[in-house]
Amino acid sequence: MTRIKAVVFDMDGVLVDAKDWHFEALNQSLELFGFRISQFEHYQIYDGLPTSRKLELLAKNQGFPMSLATFVNQMKQQYFMGIMEQKCVPNDRHQETLHRLCEDGFRLALASNSIRLTVDLLMQRTRLATYMDVTLSNEDVDRAKPDPEIYTLAFNRLGVQPDECLVVEDGAYGIEAAKKAGAHVLVVETVHDVHYRGIQRRISELEGGSAKRRAA
């Protein structure tokens, strides 16, 4: 019988409503050189990928010169930090959700395609860092999502098997990565779909009964 021991979260679009921040920051940096992506393109093609990979695709799709990639990437991170300073605030429901999952005995992890600096700052500003047993960024792996490497690493560091984990994801690349890694997946549309009841319901479905833990 399936027994879930850990819950692993994506960050952008799951625990932090930062998708549009990435879109805005990337376009601010691209517009310095006359390039821009539409919101439709962002969500259909680029969303959920590391900035370096987005620029590689932009080079293929729009002829973006990769000689500018390092500078544009650096500028994008600077613009993103400015947006984050203005817009990133704690989410009480997410804090309650992670707190209750910890009380139930689940181990928790974060596995994000963002860089380490972004991950650490967002987790601190949202006051969610304290709940995580493991926190991974795209700098902790050789291959970012949709490759399953980051989730496999998370499971190893948590000390659990893939089929003992529930991954909470919103994007196609992350969902693909989690499934390739052998985990169960809870797909959410927005950060507003991430709450204790929904996660417990999915775990209960997988376990065939109550997902709440009892003290040993």
Give a nutshell description of this structure.
The protein has 216 residues and is α/β, with parallel strands linked by helices. It has helices at residues 19-30, 39-46, 51-62, 69-87, 92-103, 116-125, 149-158, 172-180, 196-207, and strands at residues 6-9, 107-111, 134-136, 165-169, 184-187. It has nine helices and five strands; from the N terminus they run E-H-H-H-H-H-E-H-E-H-E-H-E-H.
List keywords for this structure.
216 residues, alpha/beta, Rossmann fold, 2 domains, 9 helices, 5 strands, hydrolase
Determine and state the CATH class of the largest domain.
Answer: Alpha Beta
- Name of the CATH homologous superfamily of the largest domain: HAD superfamily/HAD-like
What is the domain tally? 2
Could you give the distance between the termini?
Answer: 19 Å
Instruction: Tell me the fraction of residues in β-strands, as a range.
Output: 5-15%
N-to-C SSE series? EHHHHHEHEHEHEH
CATH T-level fold name of the largest domain: Rossmann fold
Mean pLDDT: 94
Helix content: 40-55%
Which radius of gyration do the C-alpha atoms yield?
18 Å
Secondary structure tally, helices: 9
Strand order of the largest sheet: 3-2-1-4-5
Q: Report low-confidence residues grouped into runs of 5 or more.
A: none
Going by helix content, strand content and strand pairing, the class is: alpha/beta
Multimeric state: single chain
- Shape, per Cα inertia axes: globular
Largest sheet: 5 strands, parallel
Could you say what the CATH architecture of the largest domain is?
3-Layer(aba) Sandwich
Q: Quick one: how many beta strands?
A: 5
Protein name: Phosphorylated carbohydrates phosphatase
Family: Belongs to the HAD-like hydrolase superfamily. CbbY/CbbZ/Gph/YieH family.
Keywords: Hydrolase, Magnesium, Metal-binding
Enzyme class: hydrolase
